[in-house]
Automatic annotation (TrEMBL):
<keyword id="KW-0963">Cytoplasm</keyword>
<dbReference type="InterPro" id="IPR001678">
    <property type="entry name" value="MeTrfase_RsmB-F_NOP2_dom"/>
</dbReference>
<feature type="binding site">
    <location>
        <position position="173"/>
    </location>
    <ligand>
        <name>S-adenosyl-L-methionine</name>
    </ligand>
</feature>
<dbReference type="InterPro" id="IPR023267">
    <property type="entry name" value="RCMT"/>
</dbReference>
<keyword id="KW-0949">S-adenosyl-L-methionine</keyword>
<feature type="domain" description="SAM-dependent MTase RsmB/NOP-type">
    <location>
        <begin position="1"/>
        <end position="296"/>
    </location>
</feature>
<dbReference type="InterPro" id="IPR049560">
    <property type="entry name" value="MeTrfase_RsmB-F_NOP2_cat"/>
</dbReference>
<dbReference type="GO" id="GO:0003723">
    <property type="term" value="F:RNA binding"/>
</dbReference>
<protein>
    <submittedName>
        <fullName>RNA methyltransferase</fullName>
    </submittedName>
</protein>
<feature type="active site" description="Nucleophile">
    <location>
        <position position="226"/>
    </location>
</feature>
<dbReference type="GO" id="GO:0008173">
    <property type="term" value="F:RNA methyltransferase activity"/>
</dbReference>
<dbReference type="Pfam" id="PF01189">
    <property type="entry name" value="Methyltr_RsmB-F"/>
</dbReference>
<dbReference type="InterPro" id="IPR027391">
    <property type="entry name" value="Nol1_Nop2_Fmu_2"/>
</dbReference>
<feature type="binding site">
    <location>
        <position position="128"/>
    </location>
    <ligand>
        <name>S-adenosyl-L-methionine</name>
    </ligand>
</feature>
<dbReference type="Pfam" id="PF17125">
    <property type="entry name" value="Methyltr_RsmF_N"/>
</dbReference>
<feature type="compositionally biased region" description="Basic residues">
    <location>
        <begin position="308"/>
        <end position="320"/>
    </location>
</feature>
<keyword id="KW-0694">RNA-binding</keyword>
Length: 466
């Protein structure tokens, strides 16, 4: 039985009334609900999991538990996510071609959903301030096959200086007191206090001040938390309305067990009733709060800031060619390695857009010069790495190529799949030669290289081996 803080119980008994508060406290002692999403970018991929219990309101989402050892996971065909946490990204208006920012993005559940909506078109900037969590974010976006993501590791202030009035949509799933995670995290209970709630509120305002600077006039901001406290939910939305003129947009979630926001818990504005609260006692998942907001079209929230001037590129040149430009010889190595592979949307005309950094060859989304001062984990699609007189395609590319039907594939049985994940090379009967995609159950999860004797050399990243 959870040892819920007495002050928390007193607070929510006053806010909800004794009966509804009792339902909440009872629900917090029940097991949390597991769910997963099926990746619509990986068209035609069949999964072995039970798809008979859909999550209401979310396409391609189902109740159930998945394993990180299954090919569905390693191929980026499924993603484990709390059902309520699926709604912030779902409620955005993101469409192909948009410029989108997920400001507090790790571990990547919301970013992968936004990447699906973009369908390889436009720009997704996925940022995380924690270096370790940013690494996980990058891995999850790569696994999902998102080709148009810029993954950054910085603060909201770092980004706002680079992207004033730039984004069509911004999602801020803000750091919070985590009350909605009580039944999943002992630390959420351990560190809960009213002082921490107010500390989180101040931090949320600091983050949002910078987020608003990056939103285009008329743009959309989706604000969410996994907490119940009005100080971090309705009060924050009230602050956005009062200080920046935001309006709260209506959304229809018919058939989804959710509750309306409470105007009396904020500034009394009736628009607060358009916010959504997901309570554990309503049976959907964990706790979540979501508000969909619209910035006025005539907003001056960016305070007239101009993009930072780009410094002149003074990098050394070799024979009249910048060091980040790829040579004709190197281009031939890349072309040879990719021969016979079908490329997904967003990689058309890749050869004319190639750049390299420390022998990593990539197709950038934004000019690297314009991003100086930011810590960049990934800028678009890394095709692979140049080595002495050869080129090795990247794991990121393998996961992206799994979106469409490929001919150069070696499909492993269950035993071979497990051995390959361990890092073993395998003997095959394939007649293919050179770099091939490696799959199991028809789901691509890696590159390998076939020798003339049929040996499949293992290129599964060492850091992911099991």
């Amino acid at each position: 039985m959870l040892e819920i803080p007495a002050q928390f119980k007193e607070k929510f008994a006053q806010l909800l009334g004794e009966d509804e508060a009792a339902r909440l406290f009872k629900a917090l002692d029940e097991p949390s609900k597991k769910a997963f999403r099926v990746n619509s970018l990986k068209k035609g991929a069949a999964v072995s999991y039970d798809l008979s219990r859909p999550v209401p309101g979310i396409p391609n989402a189902y109740y159930g538990e998945i394993s990180g050892k299954d090919v569905e996971w390693t191929s980026g065909t499924v993603y484990s996510q709390d059902p309520a946490a699926m709604f912030p990204a779902h409620l955005t208006d993101v469409a192909p071609g948009d410029r989108v920012l997920d400001l507090c993005a790790a571990p990547g559940g919301k970013s992968t959903a936004l990447g699906e909506k973009l369908q390889g078109q436009g720009l997704l900037v996925a940022n995380e301030i924690s270096p370790s969590r940013a690494k996980i974010l990058r891995e999850n976006l790569e696994r999902w096959g998102v080709t148009n993501a810029l993954v950054t590791n910085g603060s909201s202030e770092d980004l706002s200086s680079k992207f004033p009035a730039f984004f069509d949509e911004i999602l801020v799933d803000a750091p919070c007191s985590g009350e909605g995670m009580f039944r999943k995290s002992e630390d959420a209970i351990k560190y809960w206090s009213e002082d921490n709630v107010l500390t989180c509120q101040a931090r949320q305002q600091e983050i949002l001040q910078e987020a608003v600077k990056m939103l285009k006039p008329g743009g959309q901001l989706v604000y969410s938390t996994c907490t119940f406290s009005p100080e971090e939910d309705e009060a924050i939305v009230s602050w956005l309305i009062d200080n920046y003129g935001f309006t709260v947009e209506e959304r229809d979630l018919e058939g989804v067990p959710t509750a309306a926001g409470r105007p009396e818990w904020g500034n009394g504005n009736p628009e607060l009733a358009r916010c959504f609260r997901f309570w554990p006692q309503d049976g959907l998942g964990e706790g979540q709060f979501v508000a969909v907001l619209r910035l006025p079209a005539a907003s001056n929230a960016a305070s007239g800031e101009k993009p930072a001037k780009r410094k002149q590129d003074k990098r050394k040149k070799r024979g009249g060619r910048r060091e980040d430009q790829i040579s004709r010889e190197d281009l031939e190595y890349v072309t040879e390695a990719l021969q016979g592979l079908s490329l997904p949307a967003g990689l058309e005309n890749w050869s004319s857009r190639l750049q390299k950094s420390k022998d990593h060859v990539f197709v950038p989304l934004l000019a690297p010069d314009s991003l100086r001062g930011l810590k960049i984990l990934s800028n678009g699609m890394e095709l692979g790495m140049l080595k002495k007189k050869r080129f090795e395609p990247s794991h990121q590319l393998a996961e992206a190529l799994g979106q469409i039907k490929q001919d150069r594939v070696v499909d492993l049985d269950e035993g071979q799949y497990e051995r390959y994940l361990h890092g073993e090379s395998l003997q095959t009967a394939s007649q293919l030669k050179g770099f091939v995609l490696v799959a199991s159950k028809g789901q691509v999860f890696s590159f390998g290289k076939l020798t003339t004797s049929g040996q499949l050399k293992n290129f599964y990243p060492k850091g992911l081996r099991q």
